[in-house]
Structure formats: C-alpha cells, structure tokens
Amino acid sequence: MLDKDTPDVREVFDFGDELGRGQFGAVFAVTEKSTGRSLACKSISKRDLKSEKAKDMVRNEVRIMHHLAGDAKVVELIGAYEDATHVHLVMERLDGMELFDAMSERFDEAPYSERDAAEMTRTIVSAVDYFHQMDVMHRDLKPENFVLKTKAKDAPICAIDFGLSTFYHENQTFTEFVGSPYYMAPEVLGYRYSAEADVWSCGVILYILLCGVPPFWGQTEKATFDAIKRYKKGVEPLDFDSAPWPSVSDEAKELVRGMLEVDPKKRLTAKQVMAHPWIADPNCPPESALDAVVFERFKQFAGMTKFKKMGLKAMASNLSADEVAGLKELFKDFDKDGSGTISLDELREGLKLNASEAASAELDAIMAAVDLDGSGELDYEEFIAATLARSKRQSEAAVHAAFDYFDKDGDGSITAEEFEEAFSNMSPVERANLGDVGELIAAADADGDGRIDFDEFMAMMN
Length: 462
What we know:
By secondary structure, the chain is an alpha+beta fold. The chain has three domains: 9-92, Phosphorylase Kinase, domain 1, CATH 3.30.200; 99-287, Transferase(Phosphotransferase) domain 1 (Transferase(Phosphotransferase), domain 1); 297-461, Recoverin, domain 1 (Orthogonal Bundle), CATH 1.10.238. It contains 20 helices and eleven strands. Strands 1-2-3-5-4 form a five-stranded antiparallel β-sheet. Helix 3 (99-109) packs across helix 11.
C-alpha cells in the first residue's frame, strides 16, 4: 500500500482507548514510547480497501498530509505505518471541539459579534490560502472539518480530513461529485470545477457564521441543490433582508457576495479574501453583539444536522436480517468492483439512470443525503438508508424502527434520558460530536414540551 517497508507501529507507540470509528477502521489514542507524547492513530483496515480507487484515496491522503506538514492550521501527520492487516496514520491528537460546537459555547457565554465571525473566517481562509499555495484543493470544507486543537476556549483552529483532497495545477478541472450539499459550489453540481470551489464553501461558512443558517436551504438535499441552481441562474438572490442582515455591516455583506460569486473566474480567491478590509483590519468588523436570532437559528441548524445523522444511523442498523436480505443482495449487485462501497458511477449504472440533468440531480441527491462520512461512496448501512428512503411506506417503517430504538420505555415519546441511554453504546468521540442532548431535542421538539413524539421525529428525518 505505502510502497515502502515501515517499522512495526506497536514497537514505536503504545495503543490506548478507541476514540472513534469510521468507514474503514478506528481511531485510537496512542503514546510515543520514546517521548511520551500523546497522539492519535487512525488504523485503516486493508481488508476493506478492495478497489484501487479506495487504496489510492488512502495513499493520496498520506501524500497530501505530508505535503502540507509544517503549518499549525493543518493537523500534523507524524508518520504512516503498514502491517499485514492495516495502514496506520499517526497524527497530532486534537482534543478540542468542532467549530460549530465551539461557536455554540461562545453563544452561551458571551455576546457574539461580527468581530468573532471575522476571526474564525480569517483562520479558516488562511488555511485554505495555504492549501492553494501548496497546490492542494480540499474539496470538503465545512465546519465539521475544523477542530480546536485543545479543550481551551481560546485554542487555535485546525483543518482535518483530507480524504477527498487532491493535488491540482492551474487551469485543471475536475469532474468528481464530492463534498457536502450545503457547501457545494454550483460548478461542482455541473461536474466541472477547480480550486475556486473551496472559496465558495468558505463563503457558505461565513454566511452561517453571520446569520445562523446556510444561504441555500431545502427540506431535502435535492431541494438544496435546486436552491443553489436557482441562485446560479439569478432567479433567487441571497437573503440579506431578513434578520439579522439589516444590522450586519456592508463590508461583511460585500465579502459574502464576493465569495459566493457564481462565476468561478470572478469569485474572490483565498488571498483576496484575506486582503479584504473586513478580514484584514481587526477594527473593521463591528464589536456589537449580533441579533439574538443568529443564536436561535444556529442552534437549530447545528442540532438538526446531527439529529438526522443520528437517526439515519439508527434506522439503517436496526432492521432484521429478513428485512434487509434482498437489499444485501442488491448492494452486492451494485458493488461491481467488490470494494465494499458503491461509487456514484456504480449507483448510476445500477439504477440505469440516463444522463439527463433531472436524473443526475436526483442521483446526486440520493448519494449526498446518506453519504454520512463524506467519502463520496455509500457503505452498506448508507445504501440501506438510501434504498429505504426511495419508498415513503418503507421509509416510515424504517423510521419507526429507529424511533422505537430510542423510545426505551415505549411510551411514544423520546426524552433526554432515553437519548443518553441510546448514546451509551457510542465511542467517546462519537458521543462528544453529537453535543448537548438538550439541543438535539430542542432542534426536533416542535411543540416545546421537552419530548420528541413520532411525528416530530419523522418530520426531522424528512
């Protein structure tokens, strides 16, 4: 895999607790024997890397992280090791929260201002500027991929997860459909894009930092894609009218427009964003607190995203063998290369969709709706969730199974205590990533009674 012999990772590091688990393996706490330094190790199962594409993704992640080494805003790769069963990526250990969770704490403890938003944007875009100087395009920029280095409230922010990143050169275009729906540039939906798409994603993050919700929004991923396309066509402008936008500075709105410019060639570059007065001049962004609606919107958006991911995972994993027997065979049929995952091309071939724009958009929506780990491919559980979601009847049955999984006492509603009980099987990192249970309940609790009934659960999952 790594094209070279490496030392035995267990001779160099002592392995501790599992910190989290993903599609291809687990992340462990490790200690470097020679220095006592606390690190993290992502151990990727070679058995699950059956296709050359999957192997190339791992090799590419290693190359890019080595290439970007030396900048404090990028998680540091200490070394890559290989044994008979796994590839081990030993990295700097990050103990802080994701960007959204850090924002939530700021909201709770002190007034949140444009100056705070500018500070976070400056850190994010400076990292992207560094990527682009090094001829690397991240391709999956979103708040979840920026993490505080430590638990300290003033800890620096660090970029993570380069699994979808790629090297690029000037005038090179890409056609792979990768990324996360809310943050995708219109040219990515058109299957022809380059590094400018990273700046668009940063513009979406900035919009959320200023008002609490994404600029392009829909009840489904397809509806979100449609909103992006309407903006591209000039049918629907950015919302700068509703609260809190009337009280946001003109400089901030000017920067948002420049980063969300439809034409990639006219869009601001990362370097131009860094030079914009709202970013470059610490005294330019107002220090007065933003409207309280930002706090409420942001909590709702962050909670909804986590709630749906949690529900999809429960829905896909709590079906009987009889219920999924046919789907298991269908998955094998779609997975032409036997990699254990289904690519967009394999999904297109399996569904026999034609190349019309409507069909492609629908396919993209299916993929994006359930690709929970952002890998660009569907694993088995994600495929089950996607297939069930194609039928309203089956979807309701599957959602009811997930609801029953959380409703431990069977009284027809889910309490905070029942959520906590369900979370007890998760790894500490997965549990920490879900954040405050009260916020998750508030995101779905339409009638405000502090509990989630099935109708509220179903509405959230849809």
